[in-house]
Amino acid sequence: MGLASDSPAFPFSTTKLSAASPRFCNPISRRIFSDVAGDLTISVDGQSFLLHKFPLVSKSGRIRRMIAESKDPDLSKLELVNVPGGALAFDLAAKFCYGSNFEINTVNVAHLRCIAEYLEMTEEYQEENLIIRTETYLNEIVVKNLDKSLEVLCACDGLDPTVEEIGLVDIIDYYQRVIVAMRRTGVRPESIGTSIVHYAQTALKGIERRHVWDSGPLVGDNQRVIVETLIDLLATEKITSVTLSFLFGMLRMAIEADISLDYRIEVEKRISLQLEMASLDDLLIPARQTSDSMFDVDTVHRILVNFLQRIEEDDSGNLSPCGYESDDGLKSPSHSSVLKVGRLMDGYLAEIAPDPYLKLQNFMALIELLPDYARIVDDGLYRAIDIYLKAHPSLTDSECKKLCKLIDCQKLSQDASSHAAQNDRLPIQTVVRVLYFEQLRLKSTVSSSSSHLQYTPSGGGCAGSLSQRMFGGVGGGSGVPSSCVSPQRDNYASLRRENRELKLEIARMRVRLTELEREQGVMRQGMRDGRGGEHGRALLASISRGIGRIAMIGAQERRSKTKTKKSSHSQNWSSDGGGKISSRRRQKPSHVTYAAS
């Protein structure tokens, strides 16, 4: 005897259980029949179910086989292990065996389908058994609705590997068909993009919150299928509503899942279309656990190559430098975008430079990729190279020279040049180049200052020609007051005096540098033997005096320009000015600041 239950009018929507109806998912065993004692106790995940053999063996091939194979004729206990869905799923299957009413919906259909497969509830034992009932619901209800398909797919989490054996994850294929149908019927790309993002955020939880140092679980086979399918959809759609954080999240999952390189390249191409909008954290993609390096430099290298190829294609078409609207809704990269990417890459180089396992050829390959016009100044590049030299003291002299040749010394600011001139990590040749271009810059500054004093426009309290300002306007001139002329004359004389002294100092430095070139081999050998300290200190002292002289002349020149009313256009190179190189503070890795070595 058992509890009577009405047959449902529709197989997936049943009447609610009455208050007297039995509940099976409890910590303690329950009796199903009020007048017949249970004869079989089944344990699932530590929970006991006091049931009857007959309704179970009539629908479950697994339980029938376990009882038949038992040597105990009075078998009263069974333990089921590795049950998909656990005790809750078994509770629903037991209700089905007893004919109790419950509703099959998007929340439980995945668990019911898996437990039915586990218990072998096929039509071999009873018509319209649980497998066929759940399959019918999936085919008639779920796959015809996008939202329901998404809910069922998300409910598959934790059901591996049964969910893969029965092909339930193939629902993603139905989702793909829906997206294709939406595109064919003229749905806007923005709406399709929003749907893909929503799908991924639900099926791949935390995709936009995956950071560099996440220690979460690796991507499973189920998620691998989803990632590959979504990448295929992105590759065939012209979507502008997909954010960079979403794309980088997809890329990280693709790397963790170790999917085919072709899929990853598709995401990288999509990222390269908006690379100038990326942040430094986006680019800090961790390397796989099988790699010694901390960061995936090869992936960033490919993204940058795609970005630069797009620039070359735009240049070959003689397009407007301001960018144009392309077929995918994205503008071609303008010069300002290239400069943004240049600054972004300099910051990235500084972040990865302390990695002790970063190979020199990989580091140099990233530097050499960017064209010269991508950097207005090379301060950021110099900082990254300096960090790399500090973190890799085992580099040979030839490797250091090869790396430092990538620095354009003409593009270094005055502060960076001052730091480089006293940086003992740089090769001697690099220091000489820095000093040479500093000398040229100083010559240009002095020349422009002299020209400014000679050709100041007339008009104003201290206006007039140079002769009038020096001799007080004698002979019917403009009558410039001597109090105004005297400071100008003193300034000019002082500047000429400093210029002569500077020329002498530069001549002495040239002689010293010539001697240094001649004795370079001897000094290097002496430093190896511990005898080159005196030569090195003498060189640094000479360089410091030269740099100090340059700074002094620059300061006097600024004071001179401040006193003239027409000098507001000149650039201020004070020690607190914009020539300093900023350092981005992060917990890891540490950075080098431009303090005196």
From TrEMBL:
<feature type="coiled-coil region">
    <location>
        <begin position="492"/>
        <end position="519"/>
    </location>
</feature>
<comment type="pathway">
    <text>Protein modification; protein ubiquitination.</text>
</comment>
<protein>
    <recommendedName>
        <fullName>NPH3 domain-containing protein</fullName>
    </recommendedName>
</protein>
<feature type="region of interest" description="Disordered">
    <location>
        <begin position="552"/>
        <end position="597"/>
    </location>
</feature>
<dbReference type="InterPro" id="IPR043454">
    <property type="entry name" value="NPH3/RPT2-like"/>
</dbReference>
<feature type="domain" description="BTB">
    <location>
        <begin position="38"/>
        <end position="106"/>
    </location>
</feature>
<feature type="domain" description="NPH3">
    <location>
        <begin position="160"/>
        <end position="441"/>
    </location>
</feature>
<dbReference type="InterPro" id="IPR011333">
    <property type="entry name" value="SKP1/BTB/POZ_sf"/>
</dbReference>
<dbReference type="Pfam" id="PF03000">
    <property type="entry name" value="NPH3"/>
</dbReference>
<keyword id="KW-0175">Coiled coil</keyword>
<comment type="similarity">
    <text>Belongs to the NPH3 family.</text>
</comment>
<dbReference type="InterPro" id="IPR000210">
    <property type="entry name" value="BTB/POZ_dom"/>
</dbReference>
<dbReference type="GO" id="GO:0016567">
    <property type="term" value="P:protein ubiquitination"/>
</dbReference>
<dbReference type="InterPro" id="IPR027356">
    <property type="entry name" value="NPH3_dom"/>
</dbReference>
<keyword id="KW-0833">Ubl conjugation pathway</keyword>
